[in-house]
């Protein structure tokens, strides 16, 4: 067709993986288009995907607001700061969050413009022969053809058959970011990242939060010791986390949600005002592929790719949440950039062994590499060194003594195999472990690097020294 627009690279999806891919492709001199269907609260196109619009960024804004309020009632007194009758204006808090989101979605639009990326707003579907048809929001359809197509469709919240989202009483992360008032009782299904972070937000603001987790272990993906320390802190904050609790029913009656679940004691019932369902996410691959593309989906609806994010179909790639691997924005960033570089004939690469994980609760939880449980299961000989923030001067001065840092190193080579952290700002400190592992560094390397005093990073230094039982500030 003569009216088919031609591009070197077409990206479907402008979330973290997609917009990074599009910008890097454009930087490398390729004529690039990016398609995205999302609309903001104002009904206008909003780039940035789940992460920017209704995920990572807005949740951090609310976490920070709620933390300020929590500190007023729980920590400020220790600093000698007093005040009367602190209040939270939920609409102002949510408005601040919305303003931040708009700033960043607009920022991506400006980056597209600066890099001469053609944006299409609507739903893109891949057809055979690298043709992409876009049903735009105004109802019109455009046809594009790309030498390369990068699928970056992202992910959607998983909905439970017995707890359908109604946007008012039963919500996903989107709804839980936009409550108009603090619910008296908030139920959460799932003690994962979303459940813990948003549960923490509303708990700090005064909601009675009950988190029901079907698994018998808390944060099974994390290091066992780190999970145990974090769980203890959450309990102190009043979060009620019930493990081995399998929910079977959620009914809305008279503006309340009646929940039925089964645990070790048998059948239980609780009533809440709002229910957040946070049981995970699934690849948003529905409607993405027309018949005959040759692109394969796995049993979970994810696009099948090789280690280079190639689908096996000439010129078709896939990145981010819609493929294998952790559903993390920064993993998507790296895959998007790597694929753009591979298309340009450069060596693109993502090291899955050094992707950091962070849960932005209070205290934060972060890790990179192997857990102690994994090392034991794999029969890898290791040494562990840990250090508590309670012995770090800066942490105590900040009134943030909870948590610790643990360094895991190979017993023979001393190479760092993992780092696990619970505490204030550990989302930043974990990158000491990432860098050390990327450069194949040892625990001794970390122990011999001078760290500023007083700083939270000293916990990393002392934990690395503790691997060889030479920590100065604790008994070895």
UniProtKB/TrEMBL annotation:
Cofactor note: Binds 1 FAD per subunit.
Catalytic activity: N(6)-[(R)-dihydrolipoyl]-L-lysyl-[protein] + NAD(+) = N(6)-[(R)-lipoyl]-L-lysyl-[protein] + NADH + H(+)
Keywords: Cytoplasm, Disulfide bond, FAD, Flavoprotein, NAD, Oxidoreductase, Redox-active center
All copies of domain FAD/NAD(P)-binding, residue ranges: 7-336
Pyridine nucleotide-disulphide oxidoreductase dimerisation domain ranges (all copies): 355-463
Pfam families attached to this UniProt entry: Pyr_redox_2 (PF07992), Pyr_redox_dim (PF02852)
Main location: cytoplasm
Subcellular location(s) of the protein: Cytoplasm
The enzyme's E.C. designation: 1.8.1.4
Enzyme class, first EC level, given as a word: oxidoreductase
Superkingdom assignment: Bacteria
Molecular function terms from GO: dihydrolipoyl dehydrogenase (NADH) activity
Cofactor(s), names only, from the UniProt record: FAD
Further remarks about this protein from its record: The active site is a redox-active disulfide bond.
Family from the record: Belongs to the class-I pyridine nucleotide-disulfide oxidoreductase family.
Protein name: Dihydrolipoyl dehydrogenase
Organism of origin: Lysobacter brunescens
């Amino acid at each position: 067709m003569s009216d088919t627009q031609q591009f070197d690279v077409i990206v479907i999806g402008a979330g973290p993986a997609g917009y990074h891919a599009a910008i890097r492709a454009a930087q490398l001199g390729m004529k690039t288009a990016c398609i995205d269907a999302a609309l903001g609260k104002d009904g206008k196109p909003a780039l940035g995907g789940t992460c920017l619009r209704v995920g990572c960024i807005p949740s951090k804004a609310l976490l920070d607001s709620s933390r300020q309020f929590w500190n007023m009632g729980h920590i400020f007194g220790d600093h000698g700061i007093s005040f009367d009758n602190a209040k939270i204006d939920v609409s102002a808090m949510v408005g601040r969050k919305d303003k931040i989101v708009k700033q960043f979605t607009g920022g991506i639009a400006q980056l597209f413009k600066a890099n001469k990326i053609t944006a299409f707003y609507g739903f893109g579907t891949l057809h055979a022969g690298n043709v992409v048809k876009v049903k735009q929001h105004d109802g019109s359809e455009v046809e594009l053809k790309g030498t390369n197509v990068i699928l970056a469709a992202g992910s959607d919240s998983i909905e439970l058959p017995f707890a359908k989202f109604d946007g008012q009483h039963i919500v996903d992360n989107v709804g839980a970011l936009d409550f108009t008032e603090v619910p008296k009782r908030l139920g959460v299904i799932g003690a994962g990242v979303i459940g813990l972070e948003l549960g923490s937000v509303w708990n700090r603001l005064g909601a009675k939060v009950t988190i029901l987790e079907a698994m018998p272990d808390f944060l099974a993906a994390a290091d066992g010791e780190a999970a145990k320390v974090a769980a203890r802190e959450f309990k102190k904050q009043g979060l009620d986390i019930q493990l081995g609790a399998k929910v079977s029913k959620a009914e809305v009656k008279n503006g309340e949600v009646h929940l039925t679940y089964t645990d070790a004691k048998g059948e239980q019932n609780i009533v809440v005002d709002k229910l957040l369902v946070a049981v995970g996410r699934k690849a948003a691959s529905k409607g993405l592929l027309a018949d005959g593309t040759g692109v394969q989906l796995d049993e979970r609806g994810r696009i099948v790719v090789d280690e280079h994010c190639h689908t096996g179909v000439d010129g078709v790639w896939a990145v981010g949440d819609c493929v294998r691997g952790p559903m993390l924005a920064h993993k998507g960033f790296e895959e998007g950039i790597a694929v753009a570089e591979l298309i340009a004939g450069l060596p693109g690469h993502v090291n899955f062994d050094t992707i950091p994980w962070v849960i932005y609760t209070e205290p934060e939880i972060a890790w990179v590499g192997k857990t102690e449980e994994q090392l034991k299961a794999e029969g890898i000989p290791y040494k562990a060194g840990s250090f508590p923030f309670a012995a770090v001067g800066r942490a105590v001065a900040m009134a943030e003594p909870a948590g610790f840092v643990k360094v895991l190193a190979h017993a023979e080579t001393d190479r760092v195999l993992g780092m696990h952290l619970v505490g204030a700002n550990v989302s930043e400190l974990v990158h000491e472990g990432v860098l050390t592992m990327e450069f194949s560094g040892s625990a001794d390397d970390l122990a011999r690097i001078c760290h500023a005093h007083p700083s939270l990073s000293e916990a990393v230094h002392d934990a690395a020294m503790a691997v060889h039982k030479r920590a100065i500030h604790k008994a070895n």
